[in-house]
Structure formats: structure tokens, C-alpha cells
Design brief:
The structure is a homodimer of 333-residue chains. Chain A has 333 residues and is of the alpha/beta class. Chain A contains ten helices and 15 strands. Chains A, B: It holds the Pfam family SpoVAD.
Chain lengths: 333, 333
């Protein structure tokens, strides 16, 4: 199963038998609105805090994925989830609602693919028959926690990104119909010394490149193996850096294959600066848009590399640089 | 491998080929001082913040575990770790130092056994040959983040617990000498509606009981199977509740078998109120004291149930109750 240094090849090819993507009002105006199962016009989701609203998004994504598979939550053995809130409260409170055995994970915005990689490992190793993998983020909850409350009206530089309000969930099983998870590459922490939390794409790009290169090396394949290679949330700034770094290292990926979830989710006229970000970005784009494209026959083999900036506001205040990580999952149909 | 609803039986019996426990000055005065590899007299560990001091503890535990096995960090495929800091920065910054592929996890104080369970799963499923599992906490960093800076001198009720300043790490392998991980039970989130962050033992006791019962049920064994059953950090208050709840449900565990890491680590005359707590509590007691007792032949079969209170200061302020979880790992020699 371990292939090369850091890649798992799943011989049983765990199946994503259902998935769901839920978003907020800004995502409803975005480029991928049709790929969401639910889009909320109220950024509060009827709750009295943004954190509780995020929990609602995640609960809805999880419950939708389960019901789309015509299953009950009692049939699912494990719930694996992570998010950006301190102590991953969106995930833990959703785990309380679901009542399933819960494996909490944290990889910042890489959580979406960390949870899918772990879920696939559990299925492949017969540690479970059904595992629900999920991740979420909420724009205003994240701004409040990591930067400033949005009411403050702080300005941002063009390198900043817009955290997606959304949650995505995938139900992974031993057998069934649907796209299959064929391998996963677990990333190392890469820190090039960048310190600007308004330029996460630049900080995360080298981590994405490190994981992509490890994936190709471990599996002895090249970019042409995939129809689409999508990083998580590098945005426009990080995407250019990642493309150039890969080319410099001899892994030039044609622009029609290489993209970024943060560049796909919003329309060009939405004021998102360098693009989308947050756990909910890769999660909703993958579990909604990309899997839909696979089911339509437009894509057969994709590699999703979710990137995460592992800073906290406190590590930033203590003048630490931003450690970054990326986890890659390959999905084939 | 999946046995019953939520337990993994590891047929290959992954081996803990080495482990390490590192503590601070208060642990040096504790009941288990002799079981630590390193005890620091300086609670700052020469750093300029308590968060950086916690990272140093964790780095030292990890590096010690690796060197005790006469290995290099390059030989270890994955590092799995969690802690109580926001965005688990102790673990992520340690992962940056170690340079290994990193799987970040979060289960509050249950992180110690969540990481050991996942590490054992990776070994058993041949997803790795060597995995380092770890967890840490730092008393003053935790007080500052979850309650008040210690300089404030806030008083605490007798139900409160003392967060351990310490880190523990275990190196898990396919083959070798040492105690073996035979099974793990992943817990559900249990929330009985308790809201007092100064009485975590009471909040977590039902989660511990739920996981212990699931473990016995899934494996069709009873408490007499084990020489020692140790919960993580219920402390004296939570331990009584857990004992009574188990007895009420027909699982009476004799007091000479049933204990709690938070009751073991400090001496009776240390002012720790209801006992020790924190990820570092179960981690140091297990990877130091309990494994040492196994190697001495005093214990042959133990079950460690690490408990976690999954609240954040923000969920508390928003009047949420405290969701709790417990993950159990059985170790045999």
C-alpha cells in the first residue's frame, strides 16, 4: 500500500458513493453555483453566530451526502472532518449531531483532502465499510478569528483571498457506483519563511509543488496521467508561482490541465482579490463541481492537492513564518 | 480489521519500538518523575513564549523517541500529532522541524490515543513501516488560551484540573521489540449538557464510559481481560463518576485495575485540585510510566482511554455545552 516515500495506493479503489456541497450567498453568485446541492441566501443560516452558521453548513453537507446514498447515519462507521475554527468546533459539534465515531483532523485548508485520504485508507484497509469525509469554512467566522471582524471594514491587498462560505462531504465505501479514490500523497510541512497572512497563495505554493512532485515520483507517473490537476486554494498569485516552480523542476503542466479550486469557484467580476480559499473551497469544488464533471464523463482522472497554511494568529504575532502543507488525492472514474 | 461497530483489531500487532516522555518543573516534583526521559527546570525551556516552549517539549519527545530506536527521522514515514493550541501549532511547527509527511489530528486531550490509534492503523494496513505518534500540552500556554494568563492569579474550584506541561511520543513499527498495539476503539462525541470548563472530568466521564463499553462490546471481552484500564484525564472527580456509571451499566471494574493518568502523575501534596489533564498527561504517563511498567513485566495488557473536551473558549462564550470524546488503545506485551 505504501508506495515510494509518502504515497498510498489504494488497491481496492474506495468509491465516493455520494457527495454534497453547500454554500452561502456569495457562492450562489459564483461560477459554480449549479454544482451546489444547497445555496443559502442568509449568511447566518438562521443562527445567532457565524460559527453556528458554519456548523449548520457542515451538518447539511453531511446529512445530504448520507441521504443521497439512501443511507442512514447509523450505517456509517466513522466521520472524519476538519475546519479552520479554533479546536475545529464546526467539525466536533457536527460530530455531536451525527453521533458517529469521530476522527478529528487538522491541516488548515488541506483538511478537505486529509480527511478524504484518511477515509480512503480506512476503507482500503477494511477498517470501515462506510466513512464520511468532510470539511467546512465560513467567510465571516474566519475573518473574525484570523484577521478582523468584517464590520471593521479592513482593506486588503490584491494578494489576499476570499474564504469560501461552504461545506463539502463525501461518503466513501468499499463498493458501489461513483468516482474511485486510487491514491493519496501525504505532504510534508514546507516553510519558505514567508510571513504575510495576506499572501497565503505565495506561502502555500512551494508546499503544493513539494506534494505534487512527491506524487509523481512515488507513482512514477507524469502530469499527462491526469485530465485535471487542481490545487486547493493557491489563488491566482500562488498558482503562477506553483506553475513556475514546477516548470523549473522539469514538471511543466499544461495550463489546460493545471488549475486551482480558488480560481474556479467565483466569477471574474466578484471582488475576491486573488481568489477563493478556506477548507470549504476545495471541499465544495471537489465534492460538487469536479465530481459532477467526472460523472458527466468530462473528466476521467483528476488529482486534487489541497493546500493548508498552518499558522495561527498567535504564531503570527510571535513573528513566526507560515508553515504550509498540501495533501493530494487522485480520483478516477 | 473492523470488529463490531467502532473497534479496529490490529492482526499484525504493531510494535511501539521506542517512546519518550518529556516534562516540566512541576512534573519533576510529581509521582512519576523517574519515568520521564527529560525534565526541564525552566518552564520557558529557554524560549521567549510558552507556546514555543511547548513546541520544544514536543520536538524533544519526538527526537528522543527516534534516537532511542537508533533511527533517523528520514527512516520514519509519517508524523501524527495533535495538541490543544489553536490550529495545533505545537504539532505543525514540530512537523516543520522534523520534515516528515505530517497528519495533523485534533481530539483535545484524546489526541494522544487518537494519534496512536491512527499510527497503528497505518502500520497494520501497510501504509507505513514506521510512524511517529505524539501529543503535547503546556500548562501556562493552555491557561492563557483557554482561561486566564496565570499572572492574573485567578482562583479555581476543586473540580478544576492542572494541565500537564509535557510531551510524549511513540515510534510504531511493523516489527521489533516492545509493547504491541492490539486494538483501538474510536469514540463518539458525547455531550450530557455540562457547561462548566472548570469541571472537565465530569463532562468527559460519560464519553470515557461510552468508549470503554463499546470496546468491551465490540471485542466481546470484559474488564478482567486487562491488568490496567487507565482513562486519560478524568481526574478524581471524573473518575468517581466514570466508575459509578460503569458499575450502573454492569461493567464494574475493580479499583486496583481502574485508574486515571491524571490521578497518577502528581503527588498528593501537589496543589493540582482534581488532578492532571491536557494532551501531555495521557501522552507522558502512557509513553513513560505505563510502557516502563510493561517492560518491567508488571503489566501485560493495558487499555488506555484518552478523553477529550472538545470545547473552544468561543463555543463556551456562545453558551454551548461541552462535547466530549474518548479514544481507547489496547497495548499488550
Amino acid at each position: 500500500m505504501l508506495t515510494g516515500h509518502q504515497t498510498w495506493v489504494f488497491n481496492s479503489k474506495p468509491v465516493i458513493i455520494s457527495s454534497a456541497a453547500v454554500g452561502g450567498p456569495f457562492e450562489a453568485k459564483g461560477a459554480l453555483a449549479e454544482d451546489f446541492d444547497y445555496l443559502h441566501q442568509d449568511v447566518w443560516l438562521g443562527q445567532d453566530s457565524f460559527e453556528k452558521a458554519e456548523k449548520k453548513l457542515l451538518e447539511q453537507a453531511c446529512e445530504t451526502a448520507i441521504s443521497k446514498a439512501n443511507m442512514k447515519k447509523e450505517d456509517v462507521q466513522f466521520f472524519i472532518s476538519g475546519d479552520l475554527m479554533n479546536q475545529i468546533i464546526s467539525s466536533t459539534f457536527t460530530a455531536r449531531t451525527l453521533g458517529m465515531p469521530f476522527i478529528g483532523i487538522f491541516g488548515a485548508c488541506s483538511s478537505s483532502m486529509e480527511s478524504l485520504a484518511m477515509a480512503s485508507l480506512l476503507i482500503d484497509s477494511k477498517a470501515a465499510k462506510y466513512v464520511l469525509a468532510a470539511a467546512s469554512s465560513h467567510n465571516i467566522a474566519v475573518e473574525k478569528q484570523f484577521r478582523y471582524p468584517t464590520e471593521y471594514g479592513a482593506q486588503k491587498p490584491p494578494t489576499a483571498q476570499w474564504t469560501v462560505t461552504g461545506a463539502g462531504a463525501g461518503l466513501v465505501a468499499e463498493t458501489g457506483d461513483g468516482p474511485r479514490v486510487t491514491s493519496a500523497t501525504i505532504g510534508r510541512v514546507i516553510d519558505m519563511g514567508l510571513t504575510d497572512p495576506y499572501n497565503m497563495g505565495s506561502a502555500m505554493a512551494p508546499a503544493a509543488v513539494d506534494t505534487i512532485e512527491a506524487h509523481f515520483r512515488d507513482l512514477n507517473i507524469d502530469p499527462s496521467y491526469y485530465d485535471l490537476i487542481a490545487t486547493g486554494d493557491l489563488g491566482r498569485v500562488g498558482h503562477i508561482i506553483a506553475s513556475k516552480l514546477l516548470a523549473k523542476h522539469g514538471h511543466e503542466i499544461p495550463p489546460e490541465i493545471f488549475t486551482d479550486c480558488g480560481m474556479l469557484i467565483y466569477k471574474k467580476d466578484q471582488p475576491v482579490m486573488a481568489g477563493g480559499s478556506g477548507c470549504g473551497c476545495t471541499a465544495t469544488v471537489t465534492y460538487g463541481h469536479l465530481l459532477n464533471r467526472m460523472k458527466k464523463g468530462e473528466l476521467k482522472k483528476i488529482l486534487v492537492i489541497a493546500t493548508g497554511a498552518l499558522l495561527s494568529p498567535l504564531s503570527y504575532q510571535q513573528k513566526e513564518s507560515i508553515p504550509c502543507i498540501a495533501h493530494a488525492v487522485s480520483i478516477e472514474i
